[in-house]
Amino acid sequence: MTTQILAQTGRPAREEEEREPSRFLFSPWHLVLIPIAVVMLIPMAWMLVTSLETLNETRHFPPVLLPHTLAPGNYAAVLQQAPFARWFVNTMIVTVATVAGNLLFCSLAGYAFARIKFFGREVVFILLLATLMIPFQVVMIPTFIIVKDLGLINTLNALIVPNLANAFGVFLLRQFFRTLPVELEEAARIDGASRLSVLFKIVLPLSGPVLATLAVITFLWTWNDFLWPLITIYSPNNMTLQLGLTTFQGTHQTATNLLMAANVMSMLPVLLLFFLAQRWFIRGIATSGLKG
Amino acid sequence: MARVALRNVTKQFHGGTRALDDLSLEIPDGEFLILVGPSGCGKTTALRLVAGLEKATSGTITIGDTTVNGVSPRDRDIAMVFQNYALYPHMTVYRNLGFGLRERRTPKREVDRRVREISAILGLDDLLKRRPAQLSGGQRQRVAMGRALVREPKVFLLDEPLSNLDAKLRVQMRAELKRLHAKLGITTIYVTHDQIEAMTLADRIVVMSAGQALQIGTPQEVFSRPANLFVAGFIGSPAMNLLRGKAAARGAAGTEITAGELRFTRAGVPDGEIIVGVRPDSLAPVPADAAGPAPPAHPTLDLEVDLVEPLGEQALVHGTVAGTAARSGAEEERAILAEATSRAPVTAVFPAANLPGPGDRVRIRVPPDRIYLFSAATGEAIW
User: Fold this and answer.
1) Quick one: A57 and A106 in the same domain?
2) Which site in A7, A96, B98, B207 is 20 to 30 Å from A151, CA atoms measured?
C-alpha cells in the first residue's frame, strides 16, 4: 500500500479500467454464479410478491407466487397502522450518528495505535482486539446496566452511545494508517502541523477508501441491529425499523402481507446504499476477512 | 538563520543498534554542510535528530541559542526535504507550498504572496494547480524544495534530495541548489551517499562511518589530506588504489617504503606495516619512447591490464600489479574483477590516446609526492 500511495504520486494508475473489457461476455463461471444468484434472489422476490398480496393469498398453500390482484394498498396500510415514518427517521438518526461517531473515534484511536508511541501500546491493542472475540450476548447485560445507570433506557441515545466506536473499526483503520508513507506525516509535522492536524489534514484525506468501507459496514450493522434495540427500547415512538417490524407479528396472528410491505420499505435504503457503495462493501469484506 | 551544534550526541535504537556514537558537530550560520558516508553510517539519523523526528539517547542539540532536545519538530523552525519528496498527494502544488504557512496561521494574503514568490524563484508558476501525481521527477523535487524554502526556516535539512532523479537532472539540480544557497544563505545540512554531490556542493564535508565523524573539512581538505584509510577510500572516484607495504628506516636517507614493486623513501615514517595509497588520476603511463627507466624520483609499476573503460577524453584502465591489496572499509562493492590472483587490483586514469588493451602490460609512473601512507594497524594517515 505504501508503494501504491507513492505510485499515486508517480503515474495515475488506470489498470482497473483496462482489466474489464469482457464484462458482458459469457464465462464458464456464470454457470455456477447464476444458480447461486437465483437462490439468493428467491426470498427477495417472494417478499416483494407477498407484500402485494391479500392476507388470504399469503396463507394459501402451496404459496401463490403470482397474485391474482395486486394490492399496493398494503403499503398505505403499513404507513397508516404504524408510525413507520417515525421509525424510519429514528433509524436514520441512530445510523448516521453511529457512523459519524465510528469514523471520528475509530480514526483517533486507530491513528494513536498506528503512529503514536506510548507505554503499553501493543498490550492495549491486543486487549482491544481480544474484545472482538467476546460475543455480544456476553456483554449485553453489563452494557444494559451501564446504559440504564446513564438514564438512557428507552431513548435513541441508548442505541447510539454504546456504539460510537468499536474495536473492529479501530483495527481496520490502524492497519490502513500504518501503510501510509510516514514521511508525509513527518513532513507535515516539520511544516508545523500538530498531531491532530496531521490526522485531519493529511492522513484522513488519504484514507478515503478505508473510511468509506468502515462507514458502509457500520451503516449496515446499525441499520440491521435488532437485539440491542429490543432490550433497550419499549415505547413505539422510539423504535427503530427492525424493532417496529416485529409489531406486525402478533402472538396469534401475523399480517404477513403488511409485514413484507414494511420489510420492503425498510430494506430500500440499504439496497440503495449497496448499489451505490458495492465497491466498498466488497473491499471491506475482502480486507477484513469478516463477513458483513 | 542560525548555527547548529551537536554535542556528544548518541542515538541508540531499541534493539541496541547504535546509529550515532558520540557525534559532535558545529555548523556556523549560513554554512552548507554535507554528511556523507555509506548506507547505515548514521548520517540520516543525525539529520532526523536535528529535525526532531528522533530523540537523542544522550547529548545536546542546539539551533541558534536554544537547546532543542525535547522541542517538537514544528517548534524548531527548520524545513526538510525528503528523499521521496513526501509531497501531499491530495493537494495541489499551490496548497503543498502553502501548507506550512497555513499551519502557522499566516494571513491568507501573506501566504499567497510568499507562495508566488517562491514559485517564481523555482519556476513553478505554471504548475501551481497541478497535483504531485501530474508532475515529473524534477518538478516534484522543486516543489519539495519550494515547500521547505517558503517558510524561510532557520535551518534547511535535505535527505538525499537528488537521488531519485536521473543523472542529467541531478547535475542540473545540483547547480540550482548551489545557486539557491548562495542567494539565500540558509544554514543547510545535506545528507548524501554520493561523494560527487558532497564535493561539489559543500562548504564542509563530514565523512561518517559507524555513527562517527571520521573527518570534517572542506572538500579539498578531505580529498587531498584524508585523515584515515576510510576517508581516503570513500572520497574520490574511482576509489584510491591501496597496497600493503612495509616501512624500514634507512638512516639519513629517510625511511624506505616497499609495496610490491613500488619502492621509494620518505622521511618521518615509523617502521612497520603500512598501507600505500595512490589515486587513479595520479598514475600516468610511462611514454613508450622514453628510453631506459623512469627518473629515479618516480617509482614505476608494471600494470597488467584486464579491462578498459573509455570515458571520452580519458579512460579507466583496470588491471593488477604485483603486491597485496588492502581495503579501506569504504568499498560499496568488490572490485570489478574477482581477486583470483595474488596480485593487487589497480585502476588508473589514462588519456584516451594510445590506450592499452586487455592483456597488455604497461609501465606506470607514480609521482612520490602523490602517494598517501596509512598505518596498517590503525588506518590513520601518516604525513
Assistant:
1) no
2) A96
Q: Which of A71, A93, A126 is the last residue of a domain?
A: A71
What mean pLDDT comes out for the span A187-208? 92
Nearest chain A alpha carbon to B99: A191
Closest approach of B133 to chain A, Cα-based (Å): 4
Same domain, residue pair B156 and B263: no
Q: Flag whether A145 is in a domain.
A: yes
Mean pLDDT of A111-132: 93
Residue of chain B whose Cα is closest to the Cα of A11: B133
Q: Is the ipTM of this complex over 0.90?
A: no
Q: Closest approach of chain A CAs to the CA of B199, in angstroms?
A: 27
Q: Which residues in B lie closer than 8 A to residue A11 (C-beta atoms)?
A: 133
H helix runs in chain A, sequence order: 2-10, 15-18, 29-51, 55-58, 73-81, 84-115, 121-131, 136-149, 157-160, 167-179, 182-190, 195-197, 208-224, 227-232, 241-245, 256-288
Q: The pTM is what?
A: 0.79
For residues B274 and B291, what is the distance between their CA atoms, to the nearest angstrom? 33
The total number of structural domains in chain B stands at 2
Domain range for B342: 241-382
Q: A189–B99: do the CB atoms touch at under 8 Å?
A: no
Q: What are phi and psi of B68, to 5 degrees?
A: -105, 5
Domain of A131, in residue numbers: 83-288
